[in-house]
Design brief:
Elements lengths: L1 E4 L9 E4 L14 E5 L4 E5 L3 E2 L2 H27 L7
Antiparallel strand pairs: 1-2, 1-5, 3-4
Length: 87
């Protein structure tokens, strides 16, 4: 089974892994988490940070991008309104 990891999509992009069914830790796939065994360490991802569908992973990454843009816009507004004074 192929899974798409979106946890670090804004910095690393969407990661694609091929895993076996025994990597999924829970019976209910909607609320489960996945364990990817690596050579040095294991990686554990919870929903919505992993997907079995490429389209879902692209939608999640796009939502993450828009949320980050919104957050940065708010920070810019706050910084523009910041005034310094010596106490």
């Amino acid at each position: 089974m192929i899974v798409y990891i979106t946890k670090y999509a804004l910095s690393k992009g969407i990661q694609k892994y091929e895993v076996s069914e025994n990597h999924i830790v829970s019976e209910d796939i909607e609320y489960s988490h996945i364990l990817i065994r690596g050579a040095r360490y294991n990686e554990e991802y919870f929903k919505p940070d992993w997907h079995t569908n490429k389209e879902e992973s692209l939608i999640q990454a796009e939502l993450m991008r828009l949320k980050k843009i919104s957050s940065l816009s708010k920070q810019i507004v706050k910084l523009r309104g910041l005034k310094f004074k010596v106490k």
